[in-house]
Amino acid sequence: MRKKLLALQIGVVALALLIAALFSWRSLYADLQTRTANETRTQMTLVQGILREAGMDSPEEYLSLVENYGSKINSRITIMDPEGTVLADTHMDYEKMENHRWREEVAAALQGSERTALRYSATLQEYYYYFAAPLEMGEGTGVLRISVPMLQVRGLVWDLLNGVLLGIGVGGAVAMATAWVFTRRFMEPVEELTDTALSITQGNYDEKIRIRRTDEIGVLVDAFNQMTYTLNKNRWQLEERNAELQSVLSSMETGMAAIGGDYRFILHNQNFLRLLGLEETDVTGQEFYAAIRNTDLFSLVEDALDKEDYRNMEITMKSGGPDRILRLTANPIRTTTQGPYPYGVLVMVEDVTQIRKLENIRRDFVSNVTHELRTPLTSIQGFVEALREGAMEDPATARRFLEIIEIEAERLNTLIADILSLGEIETMGREKVLRIIPVEEVAREVMDLLEQKAEDKGIELVLEVQEGVRPYPCNPDRIKQLLINLVDNGIKYTEQGRVTLRLKEGFKALRIEVEDTGIGIGEEHLPRLFERFYRVDRGRSRNMGGTGLGLSIVKHIAELYKGSVRVESTPGKGTTFKVKLPRS
374: domain range? Predict the structure, then answer.
C-alpha cells in the first residue's frame, strides 16, 4: 500500500508539473511574441522617424541606412516602393529579390495599415515574424518592414522555459521527497496496525501498537489498542468461563451432550462417551449418527426434537463386562433468538445399574424379611391354635408344643435382633465408641461362650494368637459380634474336626482368620455369600437356626472399620474366612 500511495502522489505531482510546463510554455511563448511585437513596433517607429528626417530618396541611401540600423537592432529591415519592389534589405541583395506586393503584410501596408505575419521565408529558408507599416516617400507610400527570425524568439523562449523547467524539476523533486516523507510517516502506523491485526488473527492477543501521536492516527492507534485490550479481556473471560464449564462437565458423573438441530455435537463431557462405550475422546462437531451407534438413543433424540418435549428411557448396555443399565433423557434446548423452534437437544446419560441393584436388594430384603418373619409366626400361630383346640389336655403334647413355640419365638427374636443390628451398622458410617482393647481377651470370651455348643457336636475349638498382636481401637461388643458370627457359622457347618480362630499382626492391620473342616462352599456361591438372607442350603440353614444375616453383619462390621473380609473354600474340605482391619 505504501508503494501505491507513493506512486499515486508522484503521479499527481508529475501530472501537475506537466500541466504547469505546458501552460508555462504557452504563456511564455505568447508573452514573448507580444514583447517581440511591441519591440518591433518601437523599432519601426524609430526607423520611420530617421527616414523622414534624413530625406533619403535613392536605393543606395536606403541600403546604407538599413545596414547601419539593422545590425544595431539585430533585425532584418526591408524597404519597398509603392509597387512592392524591394529597394533595400539587410540580409539579401535587393536587386535579386522578387516583388513583395502580394505578401500579406506588404499588401496591408500599401493599403495604409500596419500588419504582422508569421511566415516561412523561402528566400532565407527560415520562419520569420514580419511587421510592415506604410512609409511616406517622394513618389508615394512605400513599405517599411522589420523581420525577426523565429529561431531567435524560440531561443529566448527555450532559455526562459529551461529556467522554468529547472524550477519545476527542483520543485518536483522537493515535492516527491516531501511525498515520500509524508507517505512514510502516514504508512508506518498503518502498516503497524495491519501487522498487529494480522498477528491478532493468529491468536497473539497481547500485541500492542507503541506509537505516540496527537493527530487522527494517534486517535486510531489508541482506539485500536483499547479494542485489543477489550478483545483480550473478553477472551480471558470466555476462556475462564469455558474452563469453568469444562470443569463442571468433567466433574459430572452423569454423561452430558448438547446436539444441535443439524444433529451435530455442540459439546459433551468424557463420561458421555465412557458410558456409551465409545473409544473416541472428542466428537465435537461430528455428526450424531456417525459417532453414536445406538438406535435407542437415535429414536430418543429424534422424538425429543420432533415432539419438542422431554423424553426418557432406560436401556441395557451389553459389553465385555457386566451388563449396565443406562437412563437416557433428552430435553429440547430453547433460546430467545431461535424463535419457537428448539435450538437442539440436551442428552443426559446416567448409569443406574447400582440404583437398580439396590432397589432389587431392597425388594429382596423386604421379601426375605417378610418370609423369615412369617415362617416362625405361622408356626407359633399354628401351635397356639392346636393348644386351643384341645392339645392342652395332653400334658406331654402341650409341653412339646410349648417348647416348639419357645424355639420359634427365640428364632424370631434373633432375626429381629440381627435386622436391627445390621440396620444400625449400615447407618452409622463410622464407629462412635472406641476403646483400645486386647483383642485376644475378646476372642477367649467368644471361645468360652461357644465351647459347649462345639462339644455337643464333638468339634474342637482352637484359638491361635500370634506373638506380638497389639491392642486394637474398637467397640468390644462389635468385634465380639463379628467373632461370634464367624465361629458359630463354622460350628454349624462342621460335622467333625475343628474350628480354629487365629489372630495375627499384619502390615498396619489386625488380621483375623476363622478356619473350619466342614462341608465347604461351592465356588458358584462365593460371590453372593455376604448378601442378606443368602443361604447355600436354605433348608439346612433354617433347621440350624440361622437367619441368613450373620455373614452380612460380619462384612458391614469390617467395612465400619475401613476393613474387608474374604472367603476361601473347598467343598468337602472346609472354609476359611479372613478379616483385615486396618490400623489408623
Answer: 357-427
Domain count, the chain: 4
Reported as a single tens digit per residue, the pLDDT across 33-64 is 677 777 777 777 777 777 777 666 677 777 77
Query: Taking Cα atoms as reference points, which of 493, 513, 460, 514 lies closest to residue 572?
Result: 493
The C-alpha atoms of residue 327 and residue 527 are separated, in whole angstroms, by 27
Contacts of 380 (CB under 8 A, 6+ apart): 405, 408, 409, 412
Residues 290 and 147 in one domain: no
How remote is the C-alpha of 247 from its chain's centroid? 16
272 forms beta bridges with: none
Q: Mean pLDDT over all residues of the chain?
A: 78
User: What is the three-class DSSP state of 263?
Assistant: coil
Is position 223 within any domain? no
Question: In CATH, what number is assigned to the domain containing residue 398?
Answer: 1.10.287.130
Say how far apart CA 26 and CA 119 lie, in whole Å.
Answer: 19
Annotate 490-521 with three-state secondary structure: HHHCCCCEEEEEEEEEECCEEEEEEEECCCCC
Helix then strand count (H, E) for the chain reads 14, 17
* Domain endpoint, select from 118, 140, 156: 156
Considering the domain architecture, whether residues 420 and 304 belong to the same structural domain is answered as: no
Pair (319, 372) in one structural domain:
no
Residue 361: which of 533, 104, 580 has the closest Cα?
Answer: 533
Query: Model-level pTM greater than 0.90?
Result: no
Tens of pLDDT, residue by residue over 512-548, are 999 999 888 888 888 888 777 777 665 444 455 556 7
Query: Which residues are registered as beta bridge partners of 580?
Result: 511, 564
Same domain, residue pair 492 and 454: yes
pLDDT of residue 225: 79
Strands (E), 235-283: 255-260, 265-268
